[in-house]
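Structure in, sequence out. Go:
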């Protein structure tokens, strides 16, 4: 049975970063990357240097021919922030983080065949502007 898919649109990415930062806190003084998805934060950061800033939420589906555990394995291998977080953990830490991520992907999965497919509705904040 597919997950309940009750995550807010775009929320999966933020929750992935939260899981990672729970296990591997970001370096002191570094703003969380997930804040680039927050329109107010983006405007605050860019307005001194850009004009005509426009933002748009763009839907993107994570549609993968693997179960949620396979989706986590894919992100672990190919998504830099997740890859780095796993690399900084010992074996027990990796297992704990993997279990949390698999649970997250399972809950968000709306595929009709979750044992062989993962479908998560997500979105990203597209930002355009012109340098001053």
């Amino acid at each position: 049975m597919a997950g309940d898919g009750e995550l807010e649109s775009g929320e999966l990415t933020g929750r992935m970063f939260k899981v990672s930062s729970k296990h591997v806190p970001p370096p002191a003084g570094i703003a969380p990357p997930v804040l680039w998805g927050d329109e107010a934060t983006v405007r605050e950061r860019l307005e001194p240097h850009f004009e005509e800033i426009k933002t748009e939420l763009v839907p993107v589906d994570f549609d993968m021919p693997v179960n949620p555990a396979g989706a986590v394995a894919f992100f672990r291998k190919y998504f830099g922030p997740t890859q780095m977080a796993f690399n900084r953990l010992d074996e027990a830490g990796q297992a704990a983080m993997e279990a949390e991520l698999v649970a997250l992907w399972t809950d968000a999965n709306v595929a009709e065949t979750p044992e062989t497919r993962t479908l998560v509705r997500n979105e990203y904040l597209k930002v355009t502007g012109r340098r001053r």
